[in-house]
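Marked as duplicate of an earlier ticket. Keeping the data here for the record.
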Amino acid sequence: MKKISLLLLLILIFNLTFAQQISLKEQSIEQFKKENYSLAINLMEKALADNSKDAEIYYYLGYFNHYNAYDSRPIKGYDSNYSQKILSYLDKALDLNPKYGDAKYFYLSECAAVAFKEYQNENLEEVKFYYEKAYKRGAIPEWGIELGKNMLNSCDSNAILFTSGDFPLNICMFVQQHYGYRKDITLVPIGLLDRPSYILALTNSESSKIIRGLKTGLTKEQIMDCHPYKWDTLTVHIPISNQLLTKYHLEKGFKMDWIIEPDFASNRMASKINGEEQHKRTYLSPTRANLLNIVETNNWERPIFFTNTYEDYFLAGLENYLQNCGVVSRLTPLKTENSKFRIDTTILERIVFDTKLQKLKTIIENDQPRTSGIIGLYGYSYYQLADYYSSTGEKDKLLKLIENYKQNIMIGFKPDNENGLLNELKKKLK
């Protein structure tokens, strides 16, 4: 027992000594990784007391408080003052380091979070105010605005565009509000489909001056009662219009068979009816249920697109039905892999040959490391089209594509990546 007690004492002393060697900032980051946001913020505030000139500490305080507000359980006493505190931390970080790209990223994210609350109140002026606030702070870069326009311009008229990730939504939203650009398109952040307040605003705003609404097929009562739904893997059959049957060369009576799996599960054991073996209860999340409702209710009346920043998980199997259009993808009624509808060459050629990307080079001076990788969508567009030209033997077009790539994409931002893709494009010539 004495040996065990001595060993435990030595371990305790070691842990205390090790903790003292780790800075408060590092301890805070470790707690954040564990999603212990309150403790992470408390430790970072203590670090700030020791070093009030550290831009990184202010950044982390803005970052961690933003997560605490929107990605943890509801905060007691949360109000608009909390948002102002977040922005004040990020303002200080940018005052100390005007090129702090990640601080700009969260500055835009926080402004957008407040703007979306104002959208739910149909308060156009406040929505514009917060997006303009982010723009004036330099948080909406020129290269991002250009990408937002290209995303919107890659969609058909009157489209529904599901966005994935904060940045794609925010640049498209800013372009619509600031420039009045392509407001025929309804922007739908797929990550907010589990929020009744957002779904209600989207359903009620067909003539909104902020975001054009759409049909969800739900009543107000159903929307406000949104919750996980008991669900097993099921196939939903969506009829196809004659126009689409012709466009995609499908037989009469063809239906889109969308297999939808449950995406929530619990350890609760249950059976629904006598004689059924008990099994772990599975559910359809509100996010997935509302995506299903929108697609099914739309019934192909409006074209549906997704930004090519999506995660397969959120698409619930729809990723198999997408036609790549470069920076976005179009929803089709058939599985597109190994089909002639895998890519839209018309839109890809427009991106490669007709889009000058005049603002792309500004990313060098206004880099936002958390999201700058999104410009890889341009390189992916070149690769997709090069692969097509290689398969069709169109060497002249492939050579022209490579020259355009050198002029438009090789800007010296990530030289290794740019040269690596150039080599892959050249391989297509063989």
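See parent ticket for discussion. DSSP finds 18 helices and ten strands in the chain.
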